[in-house]
Amino acid sequence: MTRVGRLGAALVAALGISLAGAAPAPAPVAGPDGVVRGTLAGGGSYIVQPAPGAPVAGISLWYRAPSTGFGDPQPGLGRVAATVIAASQPITGTPVGRYIDQLGGRISVTAYPDAVAISTLVPADKAADVIRALTASYFTPVIDDTGVTVAERDLAEEGFFRQFSPDEVIDDLLVSDLFSDGPARYPTVPTPQQLQALDVAKIKQFATRAFRPSNAVLVVTGAVDPSVVDAAVTGPADAAPGSEPTLTEHPVPQPQPMTVNGTEAGLGLGWIGPTIASEEEATAFDFISDYLFRPETGVVSKAMAKSKTTVDGKFVTYHDPGVFLITIAGGDLPAAKSVVETALARVKKPLDERTFAAARQSFVYHMLDDIQTPSELADNFGWYTVEGNGAYAPGAGGQRGRYFADAMQLTPAFVAQTVSAYLDRPGATVTLATATAKPQPAATRQGAAK
Protein backbone atom coordinates (compact mmCIF):
# COMPACT_ATOMS: atom_id res chain seq x y z
CA MET A 1 0.00 0.00 0.00
CA THR A 2 1.52 3.32 -1.04
CA ARG A 3 1.99 5.74 1.84
CA VAL A 4 0.30 9.11 1.33
CA GLY A 5 3.09 11.65 0.91
CA ARG A 6 5.45 9.15 -0.77
CA LEU A 7 4.35 9.55 -4.36
CA GLY A 8 6.08 9.15 -7.66
CA ALA A 9 5.21 11.10 -10.77
CA ALA A 10 2.06 13.21 -10.86
CA LEU A 11 -1.13 11.45 -11.88
CA VAL A 12 -3.08 13.38 -14.48
CA ALA A 13 -6.48 12.57 -15.96
CA ALA A 14 -6.94 15.27 -18.55
CA LEU A 15 -8.18 13.46 -21.61
CA GLY A 16 -11.04 15.09 -23.38
CA ILE A 17 -11.38 18.20 -21.29
CA SER A 18 -12.49 21.52 -22.72
CA LEU A 19 -10.86 24.34 -20.78
CA ALA A 20 -12.86 27.04 -22.48
CA GLY A 21 -16.22 27.96 -21.02
CA ALA A 22 -19.21 26.27 -22.58
CA ALA A 23 -21.06 28.02 -25.39
CA PRO A 24 -23.44 30.59 -23.91
CA ALA A 25 -26.86 29.11 -23.21
CA PRO A 26 -30.18 30.96 -23.49
CA ALA A 27 -30.54 33.68 -20.87
CA PRO A 28 -31.44 32.01 -17.54
CA VAL A 29 -34.79 32.92 -16.03
CA ALA A 30 -35.44 33.17 -12.32
CA GLY A 31 -38.09 30.93 -10.84
CA PRO A 32 -40.97 32.06 -8.62
CA ASP A 33 -38.61 32.08 -5.63
CA GLY A 34 -36.21 34.46 -7.36
CA VAL A 35 -33.53 31.79 -7.78
CA VAL A 36 -32.03 30.95 -11.18
CA ARG A 37 -31.58 27.22 -11.73
CA GLY A 38 -30.40 25.26 -14.72
CA THR A 39 -28.17 22.57 -16.17
CA LEU A 40 -24.47 23.00 -16.85
CA ALA A 41 -23.11 22.04 -20.25
CA GLY A 42 -21.25 19.16 -18.57
CA GLY A 43 -24.46 17.75 -17.14
CA GLY A 44 -24.41 19.05 -13.59
CA SER A 45 -26.77 21.65 -12.18
CA TYR A 46 -26.31 25.26 -11.19
CA ILE A 47 -28.01 27.68 -8.82
CA VAL A 48 -27.53 31.43 -8.99
CA GLN A 49 -28.90 33.91 -6.47
CA PRO A 50 -27.90 37.45 -7.44
CA ALA A 51 -27.75 39.70 -4.39
CA PRO A 52 -27.04 43.44 -4.32
CA GLY A 53 -24.47 44.81 -1.96
CA ALA A 54 -20.73 44.38 -1.67
CA PRO A 55 -18.95 43.48 -4.95
CA VAL A 56 -18.20 39.90 -3.90
CA ALA A 57 -19.33 36.48 -5.03
CA GLY A 58 -19.80 33.31 -3.05
CA ILE A 59 -18.98 30.27 -5.19
CA SER A 60 -19.22 26.64 -4.20
CA LEU A 61 -19.10 23.24 -5.84
CA TRP A 62 -21.14 20.57 -4.09
CA TYR A 63 -21.07 16.85 -4.76
CA ARG A 64 -23.13 13.94 -3.53
CA ALA A 65 -20.45 11.53 -2.38
CA PRO A 66 -20.01 9.33 0.71
CA SER A 67 -17.16 10.67 2.82
CA THR A 68 -15.82 7.12 3.16
CA GLY A 69 -15.82 6.36 -0.56
CA PHE A 70 -17.93 4.10 -2.74
CA GLY A 71 -16.63 0.70 -1.61
CA ASP A 72 -15.07 -0.50 1.61
CA PRO A 73 -15.14 2.35 4.15
CA GLN A 74 -12.06 4.59 3.95
CA PRO A 75 -12.60 7.22 6.67
CA GLY A 76 -11.84 10.76 5.52
CA LEU A 77 -11.47 9.87 1.86
CA GLY A 78 -13.81 12.61 0.59
CA ARG A 79 -12.10 15.34 2.57
CA VAL A 80 -8.64 14.13 1.56
CA ALA A 81 -9.46 13.92 -2.15
CA ALA A 82 -10.97 17.40 -2.36
CA THR A 83 -8.07 18.92 -0.40
CA VAL A 84 -5.44 17.16 -2.52
CA ILE A 85 -6.95 18.51 -5.75
CA ALA A 86 -7.06 22.08 -4.41
CA ALA A 87 -3.30 21.94 -3.82
CA SER A 88 -2.23 19.94 -6.90
CA GLN A 89 -1.05 21.62 -10.09
CA PRO A 90 -3.67 21.17 -12.84
CA ILE A 91 -2.96 21.21 -16.53
CA THR A 92 -3.87 24.91 -16.57
CA GLY A 93 -0.83 25.77 -14.45
CA THR A 94 -1.58 27.12 -10.95
CA PRO A 95 -3.20 25.04 -8.18
CA VAL A 96 -6.72 26.36 -7.71
CA GLY A 97 -6.20 26.97 -3.99
CA ARG A 98 -3.16 29.15 -4.65
CA TYR A 99 -4.90 30.91 -7.54
CA ILE A 100 -7.81 31.91 -5.30
CA ASP A 101 -5.36 33.05 -2.61
CA GLN A 102 -3.75 35.35 -5.17
CA LEU A 103 -7.15 36.93 -5.82
CA GLY A 104 -7.58 37.69 -2.13
CA GLY A 105 -9.96 34.79 -1.48
CA ARG A 106 -9.55 31.50 0.30
CA ILE A 107 -10.70 28.04 -0.66
CA SER A 108 -12.51 25.93 1.92
CA VAL A 109 -13.14 22.18 1.75
CA THR A 110 -15.89 20.68 3.90
CA ALA A 111 -17.01 17.07 4.05
CA TYR A 112 -20.19 15.56 5.44
CA PRO A 113 -21.15 11.89 5.64
CA ASP A 114 -22.87 12.10 2.25
CA ALA A 115 -21.42 15.20 0.56
CA VAL A 116 -18.30 17.22 -0.21
CA ALA A 117 -18.22 20.99 -0.74
CA ILE A 118 -15.50 23.28 -2.11
CA SER A 119 -16.30 26.92 -1.37
CA THR A 120 -14.79 30.37 -1.71
CA LEU A 121 -15.59 34.08 -1.51
CA VAL A 122 -13.93 36.25 -4.19
CA PRO A 123 -14.24 39.68 -5.83
CA ALA A 124 -17.34 39.70 -8.03
CA ASP A 125 -15.39 40.71 -11.15
CA LYS A 126 -13.29 37.54 -10.78
CA ALA A 127 -16.25 35.19 -10.40
CA ALA A 128 -16.12 33.87 -13.97
CA ASP A 129 -12.39 33.21 -13.73
CA VAL A 130 -12.81 31.35 -10.45
CA ILE A 131 -15.71 29.27 -11.79
CA ARG A 132 -13.57 28.30 -14.77
CA ALA A 133 -10.63 27.40 -12.52
CA LEU A 134 -12.71 25.43 -10.01
CA THR A 135 -14.55 23.40 -12.62
CA ALA A 136 -11.36 22.74 -14.60
CA SER A 137 -9.61 21.47 -11.45
CA TYR A 138 -12.42 19.31 -10.09
CA PHE A 139 -14.12 18.08 -13.25
CA THR A 140 -10.77 16.67 -14.41
CA PRO A 141 -8.89 15.98 -11.17
CA VAL A 142 -5.11 16.02 -11.02
CA ILE A 143 -3.20 14.55 -8.08
CA ASP A 144 0.49 15.26 -7.48
CA ASP A 145 3.10 15.03 -4.72
CA THR A 146 2.64 18.60 -3.57
CA GLY A 147 -1.12 18.28 -3.33
CA VAL A 148 -0.94 15.13 -1.22
CA THR A 149 1.75 16.61 1.04
CA VAL A 150 -0.31 19.75 1.65
CA ALA A 151 -3.47 17.73 2.33
CA GLU A 152 -1.60 15.43 4.67
CA ARG A 153 -0.16 18.36 6.60
CA ASP A 154 -3.38 20.37 6.82
CA LEU A 155 -5.60 17.46 7.81
CA ALA A 156 -3.10 16.14 10.35
CA GLU A 157 -3.08 19.59 11.95
CA GLU A 158 -6.87 19.84 11.91
CA GLY A 159 -7.23 16.35 13.34
CA PHE A 160 -4.80 17.21 16.13
CA PHE A 161 -6.70 20.31 17.22
CA ARG A 162 -10.07 18.64 16.73
CA GLN A 163 -9.37 16.20 19.53
CA PHE A 164 -9.36 19.17 21.91
CA SER A 165 -12.88 20.18 20.83
CA PRO A 166 -15.30 18.09 22.94
CA ASP A 167 -18.29 19.32 20.92
CA GLU A 168 -16.87 17.95 17.67
CA VAL A 169 -15.68 14.72 19.24
CA ILE A 170 -19.05 14.11 20.88
CA ASP A 171 -20.95 14.94 17.69
CA ASP A 172 -18.96 12.34 15.76
CA LEU A 173 -19.51 9.72 18.47
CA LEU A 174 -23.23 10.41 18.71
CA VAL A 175 -23.81 10.08 14.98
CA SER A 176 -21.70 6.93 14.90
CA ASP A 177 -23.77 5.42 17.68
CA LEU A 178 -27.08 6.24 15.99
CA PHE A 179 -26.40 4.30 12.76
CA SER A 180 -25.69 0.66 12.06
CA ASP A 181 -23.63 1.20 8.92
CA GLY A 182 -22.70 3.79 6.31
CA PRO A 183 -20.37 6.80 6.28
CA ALA A 184 -22.09 8.51 9.24
CA ARG A 185 -20.32 6.01 11.50
CA TYR A 186 -16.94 7.54 10.69
CA PRO A 187 -15.44 11.01 11.24
CA THR A 188 -15.03 13.08 8.08
CA VAL A 189 -11.59 14.25 9.23
CA PRO A 190 -9.25 11.24 9.16
CA THR A 191 -6.92 10.28 11.96
CA PRO A 192 -3.16 10.02 11.21
CA GLN A 193 -3.54 6.25 10.95
CA GLN A 194 -6.42 6.61 8.50
CA LEU A 195 -4.40 9.08 6.44
CA GLN A 196 -1.62 6.51 6.16
CA ALA A 197 -4.10 3.93 4.86
CA LEU A 198 -5.09 6.09 1.87
CA ASP A 199 -2.96 5.62 -1.21
CA VAL A 200 -3.01 7.48 -4.50
CA ALA A 201 -5.10 4.86 -6.27
CA LYS A 202 -7.90 5.14 -3.70
CA ILE A 203 -7.87 8.93 -3.85
CA LYS A 204 -7.87 8.93 -7.64
CA GLN A 205 -10.66 6.38 -7.88
CA PHE A 206 -12.85 8.37 -5.53
CA ALA A 207 -12.15 11.71 -7.23
CA THR A 208 -12.90 10.37 -10.70
CA ARG A 209 -16.34 9.16 -9.65
CA ALA A 210 -17.32 11.77 -7.07
CA PHE A 211 -16.23 14.88 -8.95
CA ARG A 212 -17.83 13.99 -12.28
CA PRO A 213 -19.30 17.06 -14.02
CA SER A 214 -22.81 15.61 -13.95
CA ASN A 215 -22.56 14.99 -10.20
CA ALA A 216 -21.77 18.64 -9.52
CA VAL A 217 -23.96 21.39 -8.11
CA LEU A 218 -22.44 24.80 -8.83
CA VAL A 219 -23.80 27.56 -6.58
CA VAL A 220 -23.07 31.24 -7.18
CA THR A 221 -24.41 34.10 -5.06
CA GLY A 222 -23.68 37.78 -4.64
CA ALA A 223 -23.10 40.65 -7.06
CA VAL A 224 -23.14 38.51 -10.20
CA ASP A 225 -25.18 38.03 -13.34
CA PRO A 226 -26.62 34.53 -13.85
CA SER A 227 -24.73 34.25 -17.13
CA VAL A 228 -21.53 33.88 -15.09
CA VAL A 229 -22.16 30.12 -15.01
CA ASP A 230 -21.28 30.01 -18.72
CA ALA A 231 -17.65 30.11 -17.55
CA ALA A 232 -17.90 26.54 -16.21
CA VAL A 233 -15.92 24.08 -18.34
CA THR A 234 -17.65 21.04 -19.74
CA GLY A 235 -15.14 18.52 -18.47
CA PRO A 236 -14.54 15.11 -20.04
CA ALA A 237 -17.34 12.95 -21.37
CA ASP A 238 -19.13 11.40 -18.40
CA ALA A 239 -19.03 7.61 -18.46
CA ALA A 240 -21.88 7.50 -15.91
CA PRO A 241 -24.18 10.46 -16.57
CA GLY A 242 -26.35 11.80 -13.78
CA SER A 243 -25.75 12.60 -10.16
CA GLU A 244 -25.10 10.05 -7.44
CA PRO A 245 -28.25 8.98 -5.58
CA THR A 246 -29.06 10.55 -2.25
CA LEU A 247 -27.84 8.44 0.64
CA THR A 248 -30.12 6.72 3.15
CA GLU A 249 -28.53 5.72 6.45
CA HIS A 250 -29.80 2.87 8.64
CA PRO A 251 -30.53 3.81 12.26
CA VAL A 252 -29.72 1.50 15.14
CA PRO A 253 -32.98 0.35 16.81
CA GLN A 254 -31.47 0.63 20.29
CA PRO A 255 -28.26 2.73 20.51
CA GLN A 256 -25.92 1.66 23.30
CA PRO A 257 -24.36 4.18 25.73
CA MET A 258 -20.72 4.91 24.99
CA THR A 259 -17.94 6.10 27.31
CA VAL A 260 -14.55 7.13 25.93
CA ASN A 261 -11.58 9.11 27.19
CA GLY A 262 -11.25 12.69 26.04
CA THR A 263 -9.22 15.80 26.76
CA GLU A 264 -12.19 17.36 28.57
CA ALA A 265 -15.18 15.86 30.33
CA GLY A 266 -18.36 16.00 28.32
CA LEU A 267 -21.74 14.47 27.63
CA GLY A 268 -23.74 14.01 24.45
CA LEU A 269 -27.37 13.15 23.70
CA GLY A 270 -28.62 12.31 20.23
CA TRP A 271 -31.76 11.15 18.44
CA ILE A 272 -32.85 10.25 14.95
CA GLY A 273 -34.95 13.08 13.53
CA PRO A 274 -37.19 13.69 10.51
CA THR A 275 -36.01 13.47 6.92
CA ILE A 276 -35.51 16.53 4.72
CA ALA A 277 -38.65 15.53 2.81
CA SER A 278 -40.72 15.93 5.99
CA GLU A 279 -40.48 19.70 5.75
CA GLU A 280 -42.88 20.65 8.53
CA GLU A 281 -41.28 18.25 11.01
CA ALA A 282 -37.75 19.28 10.03
CA THR A 283 -38.70 22.94 10.46
CA ALA A 284 -40.16 22.15 13.88
CA PHE A 285 -36.80 20.71 14.94
CA ASP A 286 -34.99 23.77 13.60
CA PHE A 287 -37.41 25.84 15.68
CA ILE A 288 -36.75 24.03 18.96
CA SER A 289 -32.98 24.09 18.30
CA ASP A 290 -33.24 27.87 18.01
CA TYR A 291 -35.66 28.24 20.92
CA LEU A 292 -33.57 26.16 23.31
CA PHE A 293 -29.96 26.46 22.17
CA ARG A 294 -29.44 29.65 20.17
CA PRO A 295 -26.36 31.37 21.72
CA GLU A 296 -27.38 34.15 24.12
CA THR A 297 -31.13 33.93 23.42
CA GLY A 298 -32.00 30.22 23.76
CA VAL A 299 -33.76 29.03 26.90
CA VAL A 300 -30.95 26.63 27.79
CA SER A 301 -28.24 29.06 26.69
CA LYS A 302 -29.57 31.76 29.00
CA ALA A 303 -29.93 29.31 31.89
CA MET A 304 -26.27 28.32 31.48
CA ALA A 305 -24.95 31.85 30.83
CA LYS A 306 -23.15 32.15 34.18
CA SER A 307 -21.99 28.55 34.22
CA LYS A 308 -18.61 27.21 33.16
CA THR A 309 -20.45 24.53 31.21
CA THR A 310 -21.05 24.94 27.48
CA VAL A 311 -24.19 23.46 25.94
CA ASP A 312 -24.93 23.22 22.22
CA GLY A 313 -27.91 21.73 20.45
CA LYS A 314 -28.72 21.45 16.75
CA PHE A 315 -30.81 19.63 14.21
CA VAL A 316 -28.92 18.49 11.10
CA THR A 317 -31.23 18.23 8.09
CA TYR A 318 -29.93 15.19 6.24
CA HIS A 319 -31.74 13.42 3.40
CA ASP A 320 -32.86 10.39 5.37
CA PRO A 321 -32.88 10.68 8.29
CA GLY A 322 -31.88 13.89 10.09
CA VAL A 323 -30.26 13.92 13.54
CA PHE A 324 -30.82 16.01 16.66
CA LEU A 325 -27.63 16.39 18.71
CA ILE A 326 -26.91 17.97 22.10
CA THR A 327 -23.39 18.36 23.52
CA ILE A 328 -22.46 19.40 27.06
CA ALA A 329 -18.83 20.09 28.00
CA GLY A 330 -16.91 21.22 31.06
CA GLY A 331 -18.13 22.40 34.44
CA ASP A 332 -20.99 20.73 36.26
CA LEU A 333 -22.25 18.15 33.77
CA PRO A 334 -25.06 16.69 35.93
CA ALA A 335 -26.51 20.16 36.59
CA ALA A 336 -26.34 21.06 32.90
CA LYS A 337 -27.96 17.76 31.91
CA SER A 338 -30.79 18.49 34.33
CA VAL A 339 -31.36 21.90 32.71
CA VAL A 340 -31.40 20.29 29.25
CA GLU A 341 -33.80 17.52 30.27
CA THR A 342 -36.16 20.03 31.89
CA ALA A 343 -36.15 22.16 28.75
CA LEU A 344 -36.79 19.15 26.50
CA ALA A 345 -39.68 18.03 28.71
CA ARG A 346 -41.19 21.51 28.42
CA VAL A 347 -41.20 21.52 24.60
CA LYS A 348 -42.86 18.11 24.54
CA LYS A 349 -45.93 19.99 25.74
CA PRO A 350 -47.46 22.89 23.79
CA LEU A 351 -46.04 26.28 24.73
CA ASP A 352 -48.55 28.98 25.53
CA GLU A 353 -49.59 30.99 22.48
CA ARG A 354 -47.84 34.21 23.48
CA THR A 355 -44.51 32.54 24.25
CA PHE A 356 -44.72 30.48 21.09
CA ALA A 357 -45.55 33.41 18.81
CA ALA A 358 -42.61 35.43 20.14
CA ALA A 359 -40.26 32.43 19.81
CA ARG A 360 -41.40 31.73 16.26
CA GLN A 361 -40.85 35.34 15.24
CA SER A 362 -37.35 35.26 16.74
CA PHE A 363 -36.66 31.98 14.93
CA VAL A 364 -37.59 33.49 11.56
CA TYR A 365 -35.42 36.53 12.25
CA HIS A 366 -32.47 34.36 13.27
CA MET A 367 -32.74 32.17 10.18
CA LEU A 368 -32.89 35.19 7.89
CA ASP A 369 -29.90 36.67 9.69
CA ASP A 370 -27.95 33.44 9.12
CA ILE A 371 -28.23 33.68 5.32
CA GLN A 372 -27.17 37.28 4.72
CA THR A 373 -23.74 36.89 3.14
CA PRO A 374 -23.00 35.37 -0.28
CA SER A 375 -21.03 32.57 1.39
CA GLU A 376 -23.89 31.73 3.74
CA LEU A 377 -26.35 31.69 0.86
CA ALA A 378 -24.10 29.53 -1.32
CA ASP A 379 -23.59 26.96 1.43
CA ASN A 380 -27.30 27.00 2.23
CA PHE A 381 -28.38 26.30 -1.35
CA GLY A 382 -25.70 23.68 -1.87
CA TRP A 383 -26.54 21.77 1.30
CA TYR A 384 -30.29 21.51 0.70
CA THR A 385 -29.78 20.63 -2.96
CA VAL A 386 -27.39 17.72 -2.44
CA GLU A 387 -29.63 16.47 0.37
CA GLY A 388 -32.46 16.25 -2.15
CA ASN A 389 -34.75 19.21 -1.44
CA GLY A 390 -33.26 22.40 -2.87
CA ALA A 391 -36.62 24.20 -3.05
CA TYR A 392 -36.86 23.92 0.77
CA ALA A 393 -33.62 25.88 1.31
CA PRO A 394 -34.25 28.89 3.58
CA GLY A 395 -32.59 31.18 1.03
CA ALA A 396 -35.02 30.20 -1.74
CA GLY A 397 -37.50 33.03 -1.96
CA GLY A 398 -36.42 34.67 1.28
CA GLN A 399 -39.20 35.17 3.77
CA ARG A 400 -41.76 34.29 1.08
CA GLY A 401 -40.16 30.92 0.33
CA ARG A 402 -41.31 27.44 1.31
CA TYR A 403 -39.09 27.21 4.38
CA PHE A 404 -40.47 30.31 6.03
CA ALA A 405 -44.02 29.44 4.96
CA ASP A 406 -43.53 26.19 6.88
CA ALA A 407 -42.10 28.11 9.83
CA MET A 408 -45.05 30.50 10.05
CA GLN A 409 -47.49 27.58 9.94
CA LEU A 410 -45.96 25.90 12.97
CA THR A 411 -48.27 25.64 15.96
CA PRO A 412 -47.53 24.86 19.61
CA ALA A 413 -49.42 21.57 19.35
CA PHE A 414 -47.63 20.45 16.18
CA VAL A 415 -44.17 21.27 17.57
CA ALA A 416 -44.89 19.43 20.82
CA GLN A 417 -46.28 16.43 18.96
CA THR A 418 -43.27 16.30 16.63
CA VAL A 419 -40.72 16.62 19.42
CA SER A 420 -42.41 13.89 21.44
CA ALA A 421 -42.67 11.56 18.44
CA TYR A 422 -38.91 11.57 17.89
CA LEU A 423 -37.37 12.26 21.30
CA ASP A 424 -39.43 9.61 23.08
CA ARG A 425 -37.66 7.02 20.93
CA PRO A 426 -34.36 5.45 22.10
CA GLY A 427 -31.47 7.85 21.66
CA ALA A 428 -27.68 7.78 21.89
CA THR A 429 -25.72 8.80 24.98
CA VAL A 430 -22.00 9.53 24.86
CA THR A 431 -19.81 10.30 27.87
CA LEU A 432 -16.36 11.84 27.52
CA ALA A 433 -14.24 11.11 30.57
CA THR A 434 -10.81 12.52 31.32
CA ALA A 435 -8.02 10.04 31.98
CA THR A 436 -8.35 10.56 35.73
CA ALA A 437 -12.09 9.94 35.75
CA LYS A 438 -11.86 6.14 35.35
CA PRO A 439 -14.68 5.72 32.80
CA GLN A 440 -17.04 2.78 33.08
CA PRO A 441 -16.74 0.10 30.36
CA ALA A 442 -19.01 0.75 27.41
CA ALA A 443 -19.44 -0.24 23.79
CA THR A 444 -17.02 1.42 21.39
CA ARG A 445 -17.99 1.56 17.74
CA GLN A 446 -15.40 1.10 15.00
CA GLY A 447 -14.17 4.35 13.51
CA ALA A 448 -15.95 6.56 16.02
CA ALA A 449 -13.24 7.52 18.47
CA LYS A 450 -10.75 10.19 17.56
Spell out the key features of this protein.
single chain, 450 residues, alpha+beta, Cytochrome Bc1 Complex, Chain A, domain 1, six-stranded mixed beta sheet, five-stranded mixed beta sheet, 14 helices, 18% strand, globular, disordered N terminus, disordered C terminus
How is this structure best described in words?
There is one protein chain. The protein is an alpha+beta fold and 450 residues long. It folds into two domains: 221 residues, Cytochrome Bc1 Complex, Chain A, domain 1 (2-Layer Sandwich); 188 residues, Cytochrome Bc1 Complex, Chain A, domain 1 (2-Layer Sandwich), CATH 3.30.830.10. The protein has 14 helices and 15 strands. The relative contact order is 0.17. The N terminus and C terminus are likely disordered.
Q: In the CATH classification, which architecture of the largest domain applies?
A: 2-Layer Sandwich
Which sheet architecture does the biggest sheet show? 6 strands, mixed
| Strand segment tally | 15
Category by helix and strand content: alpha+beta
Number of domains: 2
Q: What percentage of residues falls in helices of 4 or more residues?
A: 25-40%
The CATH top-level class label of the largest domain:
Alpha Beta
Contiguous low-pLDDT stretches (5 residues minimum) are 1-25, 437-450
Sequence of secondary-structure elements: EEEEHHEEHEHHEHHEEEEHHEEHHHHHE
- What is the residue-averaged pLDDT? 89
Strand residue content: 15-25%
CATH superfamily of the largest domain: Metalloenzyme, LuxS/M16 peptidase-like
Number of contiguous helices: 14
Rounded to the nearest angstrom, the distance between the terminal CA atoms is: 23 Å
CATH T-level topology of the largest domain = Cytochrome Bc1 Complex, Chain A, domain 1
CA-based shape: globular
